[in-house]
Design goal:
Helix content is 5%, strand content 18%. The termini are far apart. The longest helix has 4 residues, at 41-44. By secondary structure, it is mainly β. The chain has a single domain (9-79), classed as Quinone Oxidoreductase, Chain A, domain 1.
Length: 84
């Protein structure tokens, strides 16, 4: 199946919401490209990869990250080490 360029993303945090405590401006991160509903039976049980409405940017839906800035939920962000 075709995959849209930009489904894998990384960047530098340029702003965070007031409730965000574990990310800071300047952090280098990568973001999970999964779009989960958070409301279905599996999401409510913490079985996120079984989400009944699962979609992956660049695979199941248009990518949101082929742009200079993109928003991601803090739970989708993972720190990149200096070595990368």
């Amino acid at each position: 199946m075709p995959v849209v360029t930009g489904h894998e993303t990384s960047g530098i945090v340029v702003s965070v919401g007031d409730a965000v405590q574990n990310l800071s401006i300047g952090d280098k991160v990568t973001a999970d490209n999964a779009e989960l509903c958070g409301h279905c039976y599996h999401c409510q049980r913490g079985e996120l990869l079984f989400c009944e409405n699962f979609a992956a940017h660049g695979v199941h839906c248009r990518s949101k990250v082929i742009q200079s800035h993109a928003a991601a939920s803090v739970v989708q962000c993972f720190w990149l080490t200096v070595a990368i």
